[in-house]
Structures
1.
Amino acid sequence: MEVAQSVRAANVSGISLLQHHILLKNANGLDRGDLKPPAPTLTAQEGSKEERGVSALDFPASTFLSFCSAGQMVHVCVTGGSGFLASWLIKLLLERGYHVRATVRDPDDFTKTAHLFSLAHGRERLELFKADLLDEGCFDTIVENCEGVFHTASPVNMVTINPEEELIKPAVKGTLNVLRACAMSKSVRRVLLTSSMAAVVSSITNNQETPTVYESTWSDQSHWRAKRFWYGLSKLLAEEAALCFAKEKGIDLVTIVPGMIAGRCLQPNLDTASKLVMEILTGKRSFLQNVAHAWVDVRDVAEAHILAFETPLASGRYLCAREVMDSPTLLEILLKHYQLPKPVLQSFVDKPLPSAPVFKVSIRKLESLGINLKPIEDAIMESIECLIERGLL
Ligand SMILES: NC(=O)c1ccc[n+]([C@@H]2O[C@H](COP(=O)([O-])OP(=O)(O)OC[C@H]3O[C@@H](n4cnc5c(N)ncnc54)[C@H](OP(=O)(O)O)[C@@H]3O)[C@@H](O)[C@H]2O)c1
């Protein structure tokens, strides 16, 4: 990062330049273990000092960057602005006083973007730009004058005909396209990349004691290839490529690694978790496999991105999941909160499923940012309420 930029960021945050240089050195994380994916095995040992977030706790919360209170309008960019997570991120950023430059593939498609302008302050402080992940160089001018870039855009398709073209290229090349623009920019201080728990967890067997995954845990490419889980592979490859590129170019990159994200949709189309809930409750899904997923509330994922931007010491990866649930646990929650007739759901519950290997997610590093994750039942209830309001249940 250039000196002029360091000085400006230090002035904005009200911290000394020396402190800021130390923070930048840490934040760039060039010597950190999580840049180089270790062997894809899970460990039940305690996380490292860095994974426990001790270093972040060493820095008092009062020194968090408080851009808006410093009287400055800070511009940030959010890619994939029409998406489920990005819509929440934009909502929270606008509420916190940021000016948001959001990218979408088609700004004229009001069916995908109208909800953004009805957010509080959307009309005053939100701009939309056209950008496709595979359009080389298209982010270059968009990130100009932005201090933070939140890169959430990535195809989220579980079913594909040509995984290389539909998932892997946009995820990996698209991420590098965004990062290249950030590397050239004189304003970008930090890039926040949305990764996925699919870049952390791949093979867990029933034989082992419940393992814990940490920021140093990486999933296994060959496992996802063998399982033909192309979405998981695209997220793993994109995060790996991003970390290597950021290291090479000296970009301050922080990755947020959420589990399955649940909650109310702000955008008109349904997110992955709401689709799953709807399919179970309507009987569209006739077969349910028992799989354990780490779940998290969409509001918490958006908040985690913002805190990781605003916290000078934030660096590396942050696992972001409140609870690991297998399918019977999800069904129990649905039975408890869905008040309408549920013969289909009951039929799932009556058929005992074979047990699924579960795991624990270490969130000590995330908590060191000052976040308190909400119970996942709340997010699932919100998702059900939203489906009912839209007449889908
Ligand atoms: N939902 C989850 O449970 C979950 C869990 C872990 C991680 N994540 C990650 O979180 C991020 C957001 O996911 P989401 O659930 O909010 O999904 P989403 O609603 O489908 O949002 C994804 C966004 O990416 C955009 N996009 C896809 N391909 C693109 C391309 N070639 N060029 C430009 N934009 C493109 C989409 O634009 P269009 O609207 O034009 O298609 C959409 O706005 C993704 O990186 C995803 O991998 C999601």
Note: The pocket of NAP is lined by residues 80, 82-86, 105, 112, 132-134, 152-156, 170, 174, 194, 196, 235, 258, 260-261, 271-273 (CB under 6 Å).
2.
Amino acid sequence: MADGSLDTDSEDEIPAGWEERMTLDGDNYHMAGKGSLKMMELSSMWSFETARSLAFHGAHVVMACRNTMSAQTCRDLILAERPGVKVTVMKIDLASLNSVKEFADQYKQQEWPLHYLICNAAVFGLPYTQTEDGLEATFQVNHLAHFYLTKLLWTQLMTSAPARVIVVSSESHRSADLNILNLSEEKLSPLESGYWDLRAYNLSKLCNLLFSLHLNTLLCRYRVSSVALHPGNMMYTNLQRHWWLYRTIFYFVRPWTKSMQQGAATTVYCAIAPEMQAVGGMYFNNCCRCPPSSAGADDELAKALWDIIMDCLYL
Ligand SMILES: NC(=O)c1ccc[n+]([C@@H]2O[C@H](COP(=O)([O-])OP(=O)(O)OC[C@H]3O[C@@H](n4cnc5c(N)ncnc54)[C@H](OP(=O)(O)O)[C@@H]3O)[C@@H](O)[C@H]2O)c1
């Protein structure tokens, strides 16, 4: 657990940028106020709902996106609905570590605080692709780039404490076959001969969970917590765009899957629910704490993965 709980006795003790609010039951709670930021990588549909919801809660939302045109459209839609809210679009391409660094530098130049970093972007079902950094793309986009971004914004998180990193993982982490014995850079970022898109995705989603777990261990003493979550099963977004078969399967299960608002609910819950303020190192599904796979709760594996990624990034 992060030791970031807030004493709600006095208005004077509310951290800068936070405000005191009251629930329908009359209980006080604090949330990030107008001066605070939430940043996320998105422009997909349920992620749009997440941004919309957080902006409506009074946050300045910075949408870090590869496709800034579509992000701009999302921003315009949010502003058309509620003109006073603050939404900023910035460019990031997680398949390029240079782009991640450029984004982080630009963010720091703004001297904005960072109360919530939502690591949301991912790819699924990609044919084998190498990034400009020479790594397998699913691994880099879904895991390594989030790690790098978080490391680059480490100081911003700590100086904005209480702050939280929210990592969007998936229930499919349960199918990953990673353990302390087979963990290696080659396993995480395989060559074409050892690549299978589904395996790469599942592995990256387990890495998301382990990243969140170890990050929380390292930062909770600075009142920066981290949680991971599953947004919903097989929601029809752009995730399955890379292969007609996945598109077809996701299309046919649509009547039984979550709406985009429901998909956003667990992320929004993890960000702003009053009872989440001192919570870290856990995994959530359907707005409830949920036990991850045994690998997903393995502290030793999380630390070993962390060390390998630090080596990959020459950090
Ligand atoms: N859909 C589901 O059923 C489901 C289930 C479990 C977990 N999830 C997780 O939910 C999260 C969001 O997925 P989604 O379903 O909303 O899929 P999505 O519609 O494809 O959204 C993924 C987002 O990631 C962005 N992205 C991809 N590559 C990028 C890159 N190189 N640089 C920057 N951004 C990049 C995409 O941007 P572009 O628009 O530019 O491509 C898109 O905005 C993912 O972490 C996914 O693993 C989804």
Note: Residues 16-22+30-312 form a domain with the Rossmann fold fold (CATH 3.40.50.720).
